[in-house]
Automatic annotation (TrEMBL):
Pfam families linked to this entry: Radical_SAM
SMART domains xref list: Elp3
Protein name: Heme chaperone HemW
Gene3D superfamilies in alphabetical order: tm_1862 like domain
GO biological process: porphyrin-containing compound biosynthetic process
GO MF entries: 4 iron, 4 sulfur cluster binding; catalytic activity
Cellular component, GO annotation: cytoplasm
Every Radical SAM core domain range: 31-253
Length: 417
């Protein structure tokens, strides 16, 4: 598996040099010159821990959560003060964990960010279904949140119990969503669970839009090596049939595709923290992507608080990109939106896409993975499946390995991928 990703990496970056993450970091982050900069805040607390979940989180305790948020606000000022005046940024996303467990402090975090940044494209926050009550939604709305994403996973009891989660109270959810309105209401599902059928997924999608969602994200189940999940992954052929039929179903209902896994029913609905050119991440495990570097904060909450409270950034690892590595990173995440515009590439890198990847684009067209029209490469159904297939390799070869190490060591020396 890692053989395929290594070969692809060498070919596309034109070097045998691996992606090398080192235990060194910039205390001053060069974000001032970044255009299309987004923000991300990580809140690593959950009421109970799901055994399939790879994210950085611990069981909620009020004392630890409050102490963590004090440090988080310090980190925001540490970084924000590096830039004079207020920097214009696109969107802010809160992820976790379960950010709404700190609902009373979300406004304070947004205020701290507003001292340094002008957020122009809204504020998103992930919710557990238990958080979807009128009271919580009203507090979030008043704090400035404009988009929410609810982790449903499935409305069917059978799959909720496979995942070890509770039945979603849809009546309570509908009432809350009817009472407090957001620009984007997204719902997350997991597909390719054992025995899951097209009909199961179709009814999940219908129910989501009925309950008030205007955006859905349907993620394939990923079996991370360090999680304790007993769930077996679905064979490739069945998975492809499911992905293709869900896509066709969403299209037939008039929903548009905004990324490999997401569909929306209203043009203003969008929810994506990944498809941004550059972003600053705050909190433990948060990543920061700038023009020439990508950095990851420590996964360990106590180490995070200690570092920040001593006035130093909590960066655990940094990779300084070569030009080709940065291009591949950009292309990978831009392609996630299923479209790559040649002008955007040239604006970012100052060289034409065709000059850098002429042969690869020709092959992708020949194999029927993409079509080209008016300077935009758009992924076909086949291309979307193979992108997913490669992303799965990437997740298991790179993210799984890195997160597996970072869960155990607060500041590893070096990781090569
Ligand atoms: C941080 S959670 C969402 C908010 C909230 N904590 C919850 O669980 O409802 C992010 C999403 O990642 C997805 N996810 C988690 N583990 C996954 C896995 N092993 N494979 C695929 N998707 C996964 C789930 O759809 C989940 O809703
Ligand atoms: S899926 Fe959500 S609730 Fe479950 S452990 Fe992960 S972040 Fe927490």
């Amino acid at each position: 598996m890692s053989f395929i990703t290594s070969l692809t990496r060498m070919w596309l970056t034109r070097t045998v040099q691996p992606f090398t993450f080192k235990n060194e970091y910039d205390q001053i982050l060069p974000f001032a010159e970044c255009e299309n900069l987004g923000l991300y805040v990580h809140i690593p607390f959950c009421k109970s821990i799901c055994n399939f979940c790879p994210y950085c989180k611990v069981r909620y305790s009020k004392e630890l959560c409050d102490r963590y948020i004090d440090s988080l606000i310090r980190e925001i000022h540490l970084v924000g003060n590096q830039h004079p005046g207020k920097k214009r940024v696109t969107s802010l996303y809160f992820g976790g964990g379960t950010p709404a467990l700190a609902v009373d402090r979300i406004g304070e975090i947004i205020e701290a960010l507003n001292e340094h940044f002008i957020i122009t494209e809204g504020i998103g926050l992930e919710l557990h279904p238990d958080n979807v009550t009128e009271e919580v939604l009203a507090v979030l709305r008043a704090a400035g949140v404009t988009k929410i994403s609810i982790g449903i996973q499935s409305f069917r009891n059978k799959y909720q119990s496979i995942l070890g989660r509770k039945t979603v109270d849809t009546n309570k959810m509908k009432k809350a969503l009817d009472a407090v309105k957001f620009e984007t209401v997204s719902m997350d599902f997991i597909f390719a669970l054992p025995e899951q059928t097209y009909d199961d997924l179709k009814s999940d999608i219908d129910e989501a839009f009925f309950l008030g969602a205007n955006h859905v994200a349907i993620y394939p189940f990923i079996d991370f090596t360090f999680t304790a999940s007993p769930i077996k992954t679905m064979p490739k052929k069945e998975k492809r049939e499911l992905l293709d039929s869900i896509t066709r179903y969403c299209m037939s209902k008039g929903y548009s595709r905004s990324s490999i896994w997401t569909f929306f029913s209203e043009p203003e609905a969008n929810y994506s923290s990944m498809t941004r050119d550059n972003f600053l991440g705050f909190g433990c495990s948060a990543t920061t992507l700038l023009r020439d570097q990508f950095k990851i904060n420590t996964f360990d909450i106590e180490s995070y608080c200690d570092r920040i409270n001593s006035g130093t950034l909590a960066t655990s690892l940094t990779i300084r990109f070569t030009k080709r590595q940065r291009m591949i990173y950009w292309l990978f995440w831009t392609a996630y939106s299923t479209k790559v515009n040649v002008k955007d590439f040239e604006r970012f890198f100052g060289v034409p896409l065709k000059q850098m990847y002429c042969f690869e684009l020709w092959i992708a067209k020949l194999l029927g993975f993409v079509t080209e029209e008016n300077g935009t490469y758009a992924m076909t159904l086949k291309g979307a499946f193979y992108y997913h297939y490669y992303e799965n390799f990437y997740t298991l070869s790179y993210i799984d390995k890195m997160w597996g190490i970072m869960r155990k060591e607060a500041f590893p020396d070096r990781i090569e991928l």
